[in-house]
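Feature request, filed as a ticket because there's no other form

It would be nice if the structure record came with a short human-readable summary line next to the tokens. Right now we just get the raw output. Example of a typical job, pasted below so the devs can see what we mean:
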Amino acid sequence: MSYGLIGLRQQMEGEAMQGLSDLAGQQRQAKMQEEQMEQAEKQQTMSAVGTGAGIGMMAGGPVGAAIGAGIGLLAGELF
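Raw output as currently delivered:
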């Protein structure tokens, strides 16, 4: 009977360790996805700044570019 209990204990420990390993993997994956989302948001904001600066440059020269970049930054942060 003791062999059965020892085997059961070892099996339960193995399952617990596997569960912890799975959880750690899920946490790593979630962190990577969060970092990718943050990077995508930064790229979107910078794209909006560039677009705003380009439109502003066409409409009002260097001053328009600065104003357009500011508007693009605000739009990128809001949306």
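Something like this underneath would help us a lot:
The mean pLDDT is 89.
The two ends are 66 Å apart (CA to CA).
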